[in-house]
Design brief:
Layout (H helix, E strand, L loop, with lengths): L3 E2 L9 H7 L9 H18 L5 E5 L2 H10 L7 E6 L2 H12 L3 E6 L8 H10 L4 E5 L1 E2 L4 E2 L2 H8 L6 E5 L11 H4 L3 E5 L10 E6 L1 H9 L9 H8 L10 H17 L1 H21 L14 E5 L7 H11 L1 E2 L1 E2 L8 E5 L6 H18 L7 H11 L1
The structure holds pyridoxal-5'-phosphate.
Length: 377
């Protein structure tokens, strides 16, 4: 049976990219590979919508999250963390691991943080950084980054660090225009690659703190990587195959353009949201949904985990379940990266088949029909 992957990461990789990555390994200290790095540097700047260097690490996305903290903080600095889900939690866990004092703004799962609350906290104490997700993958929420950036900009000593792991390449996050200080991402999401590359774009405001930072670091060192990137190389052995794949992905994304890419993600997200509502299901984050992933409440009194299990066991399809308190209550569909409208029709058909099997009463095919209407509208 054909395997179908609809998780919010890892996501499918286009055939052209797979083929590129299957080519014989190039040595990284060669003029030919330096050309690849040069092209990738320009492409990443375009994607992150910045003039600044985008640092590349061979790591999963969490590596770039950790790097953002250890490269900008010094002992005694304090962090303000927005925790509205599993990945918000990760920010303060990294702070804790490095003994960084931090305050947490706890946000109810399924909701976005209030910018006013952030402003209030920033007026009360000095923080070196405000940390949040642009798209909180565990809940399907998009936090209001633009509004928060306008606030953080007013505080000279505070950096805005945004986890864009399921946001970069999905919806607009123009780093320079909005004033984001560090924007982090990973390869296995909208960048249409296997896991293994982590990215961090760093503003001039942040570089000033990088110069002063005294937290311990070795591998995840922004300064060392920047110096090497400027010479079109990397400090350590890079993930050469992934970087060759990245060159192709960026070339193709550029050919499509950001506007078209964001519009495609918006359309796919609307298809899933409207399909769910059309058969009487409720969205987990109805007010501030992310275009990367949709979290849907399972039918009242039914285990939503069974939908995920049916898709996995009977249809060879992967979607994601809920985590922690949302386990068994919600299911999550990823629609970021190498997907199109027909993928949405397919995954939603699978969900409806699961619901039929579970005995949920609804008009069969109604959600699929709604999704089709959106494509044709
Ligand atoms: C929003 C968000 N942040 C951080 C991570 C962690 O990334 P990784 O698993 O690549 O370390 C993920 C992974 O799903 C994510 O979705």
């Amino acid at each position: 049976m054909k395997y179908r992957l609809y998780a919010p990461g890892p996501t499918p990789v286009p055939e052209e990219v797979l083929t590129e990555m299957a080519k014989p390994i190039w040595h990284h200290r060669t003029p030919a590979f330096e050309k690849v790095i040069a092209e990738v540097r320009e492409g990443l700047k375009w994607l992150f919508q910045t003039k600044e260097e985008v640092i590349i690490f061979a790591a999963s996305g969490s590596g770039a999250m950790e790097a953002s903290i250890v490269n900008t903080f010094s002992s005694g600095d304090r962090a303000l963390v927005v925790d509205g889900g599993k990945f918000g939690e990760r920010w303060w866990k990294i702070c804790k691991a490095y003994g960084i004092e931090h305050d947490i703004i706890k946000v109810e799962w399924g909701h976005a943080v209030s910018p006013t609350e952030i402003e209030k906290r920033l007026k009360e104490k000095e923080y070196r950084g405000v940390f949040l997700q642009a798209s909180e993958t565990s809940t399907g929420v998009a936090h209001p980054v633009k509004e928060i950036a306008q606030i953080v900009k007013k505080f000279d000593k505070t950096l805005l660090v945004v986890d864009g792991i399921t946001a970069v390449g999905v919806f607009p996050l123009p780093m320079d225009e909005w004033g984001i200080d560090i924007l982090v991402s990973g390869s296995q999401k909208a960048l249409q690659l296997p896991p293994g590359l982590a990215f961090a774009a760093v503003s001039q405001k942040a570089w000033a703190f990088v110069e002063k930072s005294n937290l311990p670091k070795f591998y995840f060192n922004f300064k060392t990587e920047k110096k090497n990137l400027e010479a079109n190389t990397t400090a350590w052995t890079p993930a050469v195959s992934l970087i060759q794949g990245l060159r192709v992905v960026l070339k193709n994304m550029k050919a499509d353009g950001l506007e078209k890419t964001f519009a495609r993600h918006d359309r796919m997200a609307r298809m899933i949201r409207e399909a769910a509502l059309a058969i009487g299901l409720k969205l987990f984050a109805p007010e501030t949904p992310s275009n990367a992933i949709t979290a849907v409440w399972g039918p009242e009194g039914m285990d939503a985990g069974k939908i995920v299990k049916y898709l996995r066991d009977d249809l060879n399809m992967t979607i994601a379940g809920g985590q922690e308190a949302a386990k068994g209550k919600i299911f999550r569909i990823g629609h970021l990266g190498y997907y199109d409208e027909m993928d949405m029709i397919t995954v939603w058909s699978g969900v409806e088949m699961a619901l039929m099997k579970m005995g949920f009463r609804f008009e069969h095919g109604r959600g699929v029909a709604k999704a089709m209407e959106i494509v044709n509208s």
